[in-house]
Structure formats: C-alpha cells, structure tokens
C-alpha cells in the first residue's frame, strides 16, 4: 500500500500509523466526514431539484461539480494525514553541530536538534518540519510536505461551501416565506426543520473556510508561518510571491492544485533555508554542514 502511494508522493515519508489523538481532533474530524456527505445527499434530493430538473443537463452539471469539489476536499484532507512531516531523526544525525549552525536549536522534549522553523507539537508528540499549526480536522500538524494539501483543502472547501450556500440561501428564503402562514414553531414541517439544520451547517462551513483563507492567504504570500507571527527576533524568509507559492505547491505548481495525486516536487527540503536581509541585498543560508562521508 505504501509502495503504491509513493508513486504519487515522491520523496515523501508516509505515516505508518495514521490516528486521531486528541478528543478535539476526533470530534472535528467526525463532524466533517459525517455531516458533509449527509448534507450533500440532502442537497441532491431536496434542494437542487427545486431549481434544476433531475435528469437535465443543469442538474447533472451542478451535481458533477459538487462531487468533484467534495472529492478534492476529502482527498486533500487524506493527503494531509498520511504524509509524515516530522523531523527525520536519522537525517539529523548526518549534521555536525558546530559554530556554523544558524537558527538551529535543541529540542528538550525530543532531546534532538530541531531545524529552523521546526517546532515541537504537544499533540503529535514530535518536532514538525516547518510547522505552521496543528489542524483539528486532519488530526495532524501542517508543515513542510503537506502545506500544499492543506491549502487546497481550504480552497476547495471555500468553493464547495459557496456553491452550496448559493442554493441553500435561496431555498432558505423560500422556506422562511412559507412560515408566514404558520403561527407556531410546531407548525414547521420536518423538511423545513431539516433544511434549517443543513443551512446552519453550511453557514458554519462557509464561515470557517472563508476565515481560514483570510487568515492564511497573507501568511502564504509572505512566506511566513503562524507560529512565527509573535516572535520578536523572527527572520525574513520571504522570497517573493512566486517563489513562496512554489515552495508550497512545488515545481509543477500550475497544475498541483488540481488534484493531490499530481506529483510536484518541492524545491526545498525543510532543513536548509535562505534568509533575506531587510534591504534584500544579501542572503545567508540557515543550515549546518553535513559530516563528510568517508
């Protein structure tokens, strides 16, 4: 299984034991994997047929788009979960600690060297390479090798929630218009109550995806990490918008966003970094030399 997956995730270490650790991870993950498909099924049966006749081209087109978006959301979420972004301890042993060490530090919990921009995650129990944050929906940290999948997960979630909101909002307005003939909440039909629940879930999904994009977009474009925002002596890793995006989506970034199984090798390894000075006149390498091979 892992051997076949390596064809689509070249030069990436894959997690052998994918599991949700914290209760919050389990809750958020289950809400996504259970509520989203149930909501989609309701959309196909009750909402979309009200505006497009089942069997027609418009209905088939909308359903196909929704399914493709849903597949991309789930596929990118799974990709986030199976890629191992923890610091490779075996690779760390090949480095030599000397005065040329720049921005490396010693993790007291792991009792090992931690590369620049790598931090220890209490939930995952290890140091994460280029750690941005711990995502409860994927149950893992977002870092060097899976930032691309997390970004696509947010983008496709936003597009999917927006498309569903377009139909749900129209249906919600029509449904609420029917309530003027009722005087009590008990007069609402089961379908109206069900749609109000689905509409609420869609609204939460829309707010979440929109808020996360607003939060992460400037960070991604500037080549920063969430954990670096509050650092007093933070270094400048901004290489320009093009190279910042290339550092996330890889060498084939123009097509890497289409589907997570499209291989796109990252230009960096997460251990060696270039620092840009304030005047952008010089650059230094934030790394340490490897021991020479005998």
From TrEMBL:
<keyword id="KW-1133">Transmembrane helix</keyword>
<keyword id="KW-0472">Membrane</keyword>
<comment type="similarity">
    <text>Belongs to the DHHC palmitoyltransferase family.</text>
</comment>
<dbReference type="InterPro" id="IPR001594">
    <property type="entry name" value="Palmitoyltrfase_DHHC"/>
</dbReference>
<feature type="transmembrane region" description="Helical">
    <location>
        <begin position="153"/>
        <end position="173"/>
    </location>
</feature>
<dbReference type="InterPro" id="IPR039859">
    <property type="entry name" value="PFA4/ZDH16/20/ERF2-like"/>
</dbReference>
<keyword id="KW-0808">Transferase</keyword>
<dbReference type="Pfam" id="PF01529">
    <property type="entry name" value="DHHC"/>
</dbReference>
<feature type="domain" description="Palmitoyltransferase DHHC">
    <location>
        <begin position="104"/>
        <end position="223"/>
    </location>
</feature>
<keyword id="KW-0812">Transmembrane</keyword>
<keyword id="KW-0012">Acyltransferase</keyword>
<feature type="transmembrane region" description="Helical">
    <location>
        <begin position="193"/>
        <end position="215"/>
    </location>
</feature>
<feature type="transmembrane region" description="Helical">
    <location>
        <begin position="57"/>
        <end position="83"/>
    </location>
</feature>
<protein>
    <recommendedName>
        <fullName>Palmitoyltransferase</fullName>
        <ecNumber>2.3.1.225</ecNumber>
    </recommendedName>
</protein>
């Amino acid at each position: 299984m892992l051997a076949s997956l390596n064809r689509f995730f070249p030069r990436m270490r894959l997690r052998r034991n994918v599991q949700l650790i914290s209760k919050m991870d389990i809750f958020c993950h289950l809400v996504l994997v259970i509520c989203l498909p149930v909501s989609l099924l309701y959309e196909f049966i009750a909402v979309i047929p009200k505006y497009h006749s089942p069997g027609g081209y418009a209905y088939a087109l909308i359903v196909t788009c929704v399914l493709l978006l849903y597949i991309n959301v789930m596929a990118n979420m799974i990709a986030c979960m199976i890629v191992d972004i923890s610091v490779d301890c075996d690779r760390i042993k090949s480095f030599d600690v000397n005065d040329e060490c720049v921005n490396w530090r010693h993790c007291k919990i792991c009792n090992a060297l931690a590369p620049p921009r790598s931090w220890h995650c209490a939930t995952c129990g290890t140091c994460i390479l280029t750690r941005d944050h711990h995502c409860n929906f994927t149950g893992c940290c977002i870092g060097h090798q899976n930032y691309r999948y997390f970004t696509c997960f947010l983008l496709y979630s936003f597009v999917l929630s927006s498309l569903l909101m377009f139909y749900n909002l129209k249906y919600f307005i029509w449904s609420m218009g029917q309530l003027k003939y009722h005087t009590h909440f008990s007069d609402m039909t089961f379908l109206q109550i069900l749609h109000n629940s689905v509409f609420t879930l869609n609204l939460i999904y829309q707010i979440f995806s929109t808020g996360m994009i607003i939060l992460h977009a400037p960070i991604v474009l500037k080549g920063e990490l969430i954990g670096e925002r509050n650092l007093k002596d933070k270094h400048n890793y901004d290489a320009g918008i093009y190279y910042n995006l290339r550092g996330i989506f890889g060498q084939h970034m123009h097509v890497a966003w289409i589907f997570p199984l499209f291989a796109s090798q990252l230009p960096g390894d997460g251990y060696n970094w270039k620092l840009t000075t304030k005047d952008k006149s010089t650059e230094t390498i934030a790394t340490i030399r490897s021991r020479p091979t005998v």
